[in-house]
């Protein structure tokens, strides 16, 4: 109480001074005019630095010659530093430092990779020495969120600024988000205008200010009328994702047998309409993807056929538990060794996307059948994921609560 009132008095005093300054345009005390002031020290750098970019089709020696660097045998230094000279590619920026008096190059520095910087220093005898310096990266935790208008790509483009993560890294994040939720959401077809996503992710920041997406720690999706939460948790060393109750997100079936990262961005809903079970002519879901894209088994099972099958072209059919069968059509190639009777596990590659049989372009024709009847794989009441062991629950709940607060912006704003 005493502390609080003295803080209040201090605040009133500060405000009073500020007001007095604002009204009279002068400090409420007389300024000393005869305080001796030191002359500013002008710092003269003993060197001058230029940056030069390795051009396409140019060798490092050409760049060195242009900079007047002589006697720097990069080949020999590369051997002692155990680096591959082919790592020097167009676009790499070399910083060349020169002595201001002699204009002689004395230092050359280049970022040779994400993890390494090379520094070459000219010795007094005129020869060059080199050293490899590791680039330091630190990890921070950020929250990203956005609304969906057309696709997940547009959602992250609008929700995550280029200053947070550049486009390539944002896309890597979407791919991981899709993978984390691949047992409940089909990122290529489920998101609708008005849906939302939020995620807490690790981001790596280098000492040069570059940013990389690290990994997803938690996600929250409002997609197709469902609210889905995912929390990373390392149970006995292996990290996996769990819902808020500590049940594994992993289920008996993947929603889509083609990973979202492989779905053609020019996916047309009009041409590949998901007419599941609605018409007699088309009883599956089509995924547009390039020829050669890996096709994964949606769940554990036993192959019942693998080969040519009329309009299906190259077809793989798998029998799973509970009367479920899945079919994968138009494959350009069936995985070697895959034939009737062979056991497959979830996400195992069973073939490649193609356009064999009656197909107008490369795509996967996927059917999910129960007792022979084509069904929407998402309409199936999903089996519950395996729960965490009792002994891990306390730790999980602690981690989950921290992540939940980070996911929830309103909580974040009021957090101290
Ligand atoms: Zn089809």
Spell out the helices and strands N to C.
HEHHEEEEEHHEEEEEEEEEEEEEEHH
Please describe the biggest sheet, giving its number of strands, its sense, and whether it closes into a barrel.
Answer: 7 strands, antiparallel
CATH architecture of the largest domain: Distorted Sandwich
Number of strands: 20
CATH superfamily of the largest domain: Glucose Permease (Domain IIA)
| Total discrete domains | 3
In one word, what is the shape? extended
CATH domain fold name of the largest domain? Glucose Permease (Domain IIA)
Strand content: 25-35%
Question: What is Rg?
Answer: 31 Å
Amino- and carboxy-terminal Cα gap: 21 Å
Low-confidence stretches: 266-280, 411-416
Structural class: alpha+beta
Helical content band: 10-25%
Q: Overall mean pLDDT score? A: 83
- Give the bound compounds: zinc ion
Number of discrete helical segments:
7
Q: What's the SSE blueprint?
A:
Layout: H1 2-24, E1 47-53, H2 60-66, H3 74-81, E2 93-99, E3 105-111, E4 116-122, E5 128-134, E6 137-147, H4 152-159, H5 167-180, E7 196-206, E8 211-223, E9 226-235, E10 238-242, E11 285-288, E12 294-296, E13 301-308, E14 314-319, E15 324-331, E16 333-334, E17 343-344, E18 349-352, E19 363-370, E20 373-374, H6 390-407, H7 409-414
Antiparallel strand pairs: 1-2, 2-3, 3-4, 4-5, 6-7, 7-8, 8-9, 9-10, 11-19, 12-18, 13-14, 13-17, 14-15, 15-19, 16-18, 19-20
Helix pairs in contact: 4-5
The structure holds zinc ion.
Zinc ion is lined by residues 282, 284, 286, 365.
């Amino acid at each position: 109480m005493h502390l609080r009132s003295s803080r209040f008095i201090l605040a009133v005093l500060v405000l009073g001074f500020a007001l007095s300054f604002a009204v009279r345009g002068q400090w409420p005390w007389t300024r000393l005019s005869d305080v001796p002031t030191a002359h500013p020290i002008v710092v003269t750098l003993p060197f001058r630095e230029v940056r030069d970019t390795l051009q396409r089709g140019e060798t490092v020696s050409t760049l060195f010659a242009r900079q007047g660097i002589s006697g720097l045998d990069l080949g020999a230094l590369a051997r002692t530093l155990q680096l591959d000279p082919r790592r020097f590619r167009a676009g790499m920026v070399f910083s060349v430092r020169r002595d201001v008096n002699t204009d002689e190059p004395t230092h050359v520095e280049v970022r040779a990779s994400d993890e390494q910087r090379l520094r070459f220093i000219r010795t007094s005898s005129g020869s060059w020495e080199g050293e490899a310096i590791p680039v330091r990266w630190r990890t921070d935790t950020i929250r990203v969120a956005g609304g969906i208008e057309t696709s997940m790509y547009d959602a992250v483009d609008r929700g995550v600024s280029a200053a947070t993560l550049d486009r390539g890294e944002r896309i890597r994040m979407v791919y991981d988000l899709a993978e984390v939720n691949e047992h409940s959401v089909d990122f290529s077809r489920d998101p609708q205008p008005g849906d939302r996503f939020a995620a807490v992710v690790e981001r790596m920041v280098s000492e040069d200010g570059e940013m990389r997406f690290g990994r997803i720690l938690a996600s929250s999706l409002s997609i197709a009328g469902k609210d889905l939460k995912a929390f990373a948790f390392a149970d006995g060393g292996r990290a996996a994702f769990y819902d808020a109750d500590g049940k594994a997100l992993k289920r008996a079936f993947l929603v889509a047998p083609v990973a979202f990262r492989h779905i053609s961005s020019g996916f047309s809903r009009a041409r590949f309409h998901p007419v599941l079970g609605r018409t007699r002519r088309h009883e599956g879901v089509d995924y547009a993807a390039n020829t050669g894209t890996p096709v994964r088994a949606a769940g554990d099972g036993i192959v019942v056929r693998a080969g040519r099958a009329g309009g299906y072209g190259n077809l793989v059919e798998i029998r799973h538990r509970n009367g479920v069968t899945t079919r994968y059509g138009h494959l350009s190639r069936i995985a070697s060794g895959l034939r009737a009777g062979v056991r497959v596990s979830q996400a195992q590659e069973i073939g490649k996307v193609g356009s064999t049989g009656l197909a107008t372009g490369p795509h996967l024709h996927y059917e999910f059948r129960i007792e022979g009847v084509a069904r929407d794989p998402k309409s199936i009441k999903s089996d519950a994921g395996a729960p965490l062991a009792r002994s891990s629950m306390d730790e999980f709940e602690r981690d989950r609560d921290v992540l939940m607060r980070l996911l929830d912006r309103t909580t974040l704003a009021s957090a101290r």
